[in-house]
Amino acid sequence: MEARSFVLRGVVAGAVAGLVAWVFALLFAEPQVEAAIAYEEGRGEAEEALATAAGAVPAGGAEEEVVSRGVQATIGLGVGMVAIGIALGLLFAVVYTLLHGRVALRPRVLALVVAGAGFLTIYATPFVKYPASPPAVGSDETIGDRTALYLVMVIGSLLFLVAAVAVARLVRGRIGTWNAVLVGGVVYVALSAVLTTVLPGLGELTINAVENGPRVSETPLPLRDASGAILYPGFDADVLYHFRVASFAAQALLWGVLGLAFGALVERRLAKGEVGERTPETSAA
Amino acid sequence: MTTAGAVARAKATAVPASETLPWLISAVLVGLALYYVVGIDQGAVSVLGDTTVLHELVHDARHFLGFPCH
Predict the structure, then answer these.
(1) Which of A7, A193, A268, B45 has the most CB atoms around its CB within 10 Å?
(2) Tell me, what's the ipTM?
């Protein structure tokens, strides 16, 4: 099989994974997103009432909706999930192509290993430091900083995995495969721990620290009046928890389906090649 | 590395790079572009114009996939 076959199968497997993740998101993400938006709107009204009471001129009418909530929560969600599935499927296929025939794993096992590595580096490790957040959690003013910090975590995790694999390969001859994988795991966790410790929490960003004092996150605190009485509650901890668990599960599902579907497609193609014209790669399994 | 692995390696490298590379390079470029469009554009930075149509369309997916959003 050549690169073309792998890349096209990556697109197909990625799109399928995106569709599955879309259905999951419709069921488990949207209720939390709706709750978060309701919180955001209620809080906006409370803040406006507080400002009016303090003598400020109320801000102009509500923001105009560019895309309706109905579209965002269904088609928009689907477009985003399938597009990211295809994007990750393409990147996945490139890594798979480079490893195919070079490691002693049959295709469907190698596909799952690469998918697991993608989940670990592109989503799970950054999530430890900067977890997925629903609307209302996250300040407009810090979007630039938050995007940069998130990408540092993604790129750092990818580099750390490359380093961990390099170390494991280096010591494998002396201590065996099992122990070499353990050493690689320790290298990955240690490097990731250093990076997550060095990078600032979102609540420590200057704008946030000035407003609320240094905190770990940007999760909204209760809105208080001058006397300190709570006018509007802080963000619901349960909504935040359920949103993040669902987000984590959706990514595991996305990468899992991508790896399984890709592995199945490649093995089917290789089996066909064995029956029909003899392709040299059939011996790679 | 087993003998079978070594054979596979020899055969894998038998595919000329001139046929493989264009596919791999385009896959990386298109993959990164899609990742950027879904996750980042029309947020902190924007190459697809000063509107927020795309951002708003994929808004829920962006939050749910873990990307920083407003």
Answers:
(1) A7
(2) 0.89
- Residue A42: phi, psi to the nearest 5? -60, -40
Give the Cα separation of B50 and A81 in Å (integer).
Answer: 23
Domain count, chain B: 1
Say which DSSP state B40 is in: T
Nearest to A130 by CA among A38, A40, A192: A192
pLDDT at A51 over 80: yes
* Residue B1 in this model has a pLDDT that exceeds 80: no
Residue B4 lies in a domain: no
Give the A window 71-90 contacts with B, CB below 8 Å. Answer: 71-73, 75-77, 79-81, 83-84, 86-90
Range of the domain at B20: 16-64
What residues in A contact B8, CB-CB < 8 Å? 101-102, 281, 283-284
List all residues of chain A from 136 to 165 with a beta carbon under 8 Å from chain B. 138-140, 143-144, 146-151
Backbone CA torsion sign across A28, A34, A36, A39: negative
| A190 CB-near residues (< 8 Å, 6+ apart) | none
